[in-house]
Amino acid sequence: MVMIQAISWWSVAEMTRQLHVYVAATLLVSVSACPPECRCLDHDSIVNCHHADVDRLPSPLPPSAIVVDADRNRISALHNDSLQSALRFLLLLLPVPITLFVPV
Predict the structure, then answer these.
(1) pLDDT in tens, 34-90
(2) What is the pTM of this model?
(3) Residues 51, 63: one domain?
(4) How many domains does the chain have?
(5) Do residue 26 and residue 47 come from a single domain?
(6) What is the torsion angle, in degrees rounded to the nearest 10, for the CA atoms of residue 34, residue 39, residue 45 and residue 50?
(7) What residue numbers bound the domain in which 7 lies?
């Protein structure tokens, strides 16, 4: 009886470990809101779209984005809906010159 409990305990512990690994991997994949053209770092707070060869700011941007580097792209205008998914910015790097369209 003791041997069965030990095997049973090991099986439960191993299944629990595998479940934790699966949940962690799933969260890493599903939590990231990084646009496919960009690379996100530091829990999506840094969004690097530098040299992504895009003509619009990639969207949706992660809500946690603080720094967005979209320089060295073909972006010529920034539309008022481009930043709606991002809640805050400390730094937004864009190509120069650029036309800004702000909401009325």
Answers:
(1) 999 999 999 999 999 999 999 998 888 888 899 999 999 999 888 777 766 666 778
(2) 0.62
(3) yes
(4) 2
(5) no
(6) -120
(7) 1-31
